Amino acid sequence: MANYPDDLQYTKDHEWIRVTGDSGRVGITYYAQESLGDVVYVDLPKVGVKVTANEPFGSVESVKAVSELFSPVSGEVVEINEKLNDSPELVNSVPYEDGWMIVIKLSNTSEVDALLSAAEYEDFLNEK
Amino acid sequence: MSNPNARIKKVKTHISQNEGLIFEKSRTGTRAFHLPVADVPAPAAEELVPAHLLRHDDLEGLPEVSEPEVVRHYTRLSTWNYGTDTGMFPLGSCTMKYNPKFNEWAARLPAIARTHPLAPEAAIRGNLRLIKELEDSLCEITGLDACSLQPTAGAHGELTGVMMIRAALEERGDPRKYILIPDAAHGTNPASAVMCGYKVITLISKPNGLLDLEALDKAMDDSVAGLMITNPNTLGIFEEDIAKACELIHSRGGYVYMDGANMNALVGVARPGDMGADVMHLNLHKTFSTPHGGGGPGCGPVLVKKELEPYLPFPTIKRNPDGHSSFDYDRPKSIGRVKAFYGNYGMMVRALAYIRALGPDGLRMATEIAVLNANYVRHHLENDYDIPFDGPAMHEVVFNDKKQQAFGIRNGDIAKRLIDYGFHPPTMSFPLVAPGAIMIEPTESESREELDFFIDAMKSIARECEENPDFVKAAPHNARLGRLDETAAARNPVLRWKPTEVAKAAAK
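ok -> structure tokens follow
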């Protein structure tokens, strides 16, 4: 299904990561943005901050609620999506492209194995 | 469908005058008062006011208007308002009960309202006695041993409470690292824990929305400072395992913080202290009928068991052998002051007035009616709206928009349409454990007649969702303003009027 691209890995907290080499680009899933409703603000960490798998790295605010963002993997933030400051709606309209949030340099690439594939994530959503 | 408003019973369209901003009414030279020419030499402003407080911009933007213009402006604005003086305000989790006017009479008594905060103790014996009596009443109501009225809001009380837990554990040698919070707890709890240096572990509730004792057992060890729990929880359901949960936390050296946000379901019937809570806060503006701010002063008392009493904010109030009450500054273990002076006294007066006016039997009856009213609403709407978590309601009931989603309607659309029927909408999309939540708390203030108006309105909207969903999606139709773009307002908020920006906008 196009809503959950096959080349991404997913978390049960509804983040995705696209791993290339030893770094990964992170955002939230189609389901997450759909449940949140219109995103109005994204609070991201600074470049250089260390993040830990399954620990919060920031938060996303919609017209309904503020939700924490959980890092799929451990490592260091090497890039953040500055565009979201002025255009948080990108998280809703293109969650897997320009709506990405941070790039993490992974400290332990084997952590990726614990994440869900697109098919597994969709099964998880269907169980909910 | 013929006239879509034919079913609306409670309200009719009434005169509602347009009203611009007061800044836009300004005309140079207009005055409310004309003062006679001074017959003594006028000192220069620089001699009277410190230089850094003097404005040199010719008071740009300060509106120049006459007295009737000012009075009419604010009176017209007040007719746009909706409050508990106008009708039912079913905002779940907020306990929007009617605030008796008797409270206001008491708080306005000159001897009370005009007390100077720096008056010597001998001159404020009555005030201190009143504060002490409120503390005693709240201790009796909650089953706890000591109280501080210093904190000025619920979240402030929470912060104070967790600070005390930390202080007690530090004295024992280890403040510990984590605090457990169920996902059905109150929203501000995690923030209070984090502010005190704790990490939060979220406990996932059982499918019935209640605390999972097994998950608690697994998570609770000697790295956990304690549990923060809201009872009844934010789904309006009573945590039936609360006593067992407290016992488990205590047996492993932790403390139990109870969020008193939902105390309106318990007053006079059950006491958190008896359930095992060590520390809790109350929201006087919810349970004890003081005003809901509007940004104004609040009071979020914090109450503790004997064991935590030494850590209460400084100063406390003690009763002396001669019967007088006085401030106690000899508090070596106190976490310190959390508010200048002793909090917001006016709120304490109102809360005590409420407690004394109702008395023990009246307080109990208020609780019983609050629970009855919520269950009455639940019973009459359970076929029209889905209920995500079963179990008898306490003081509030949570529905969701599952049935209406089939017609493309979300909870926000239902809320907007309810405005057309003359009601303030319930709480939307909270708690987060119930997606699409519609959280209704009628409180004890509502008569059966008003509840029936509300139920009729909700039933009628459920029918409209099936028959004419587009009409519901475009609501409100009868309000002063139609559907507002909430997203644009949140993304690009305009928070203050500036003359230059208005001129710029006008030039466009």
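Chain A has one domain: 9-127.
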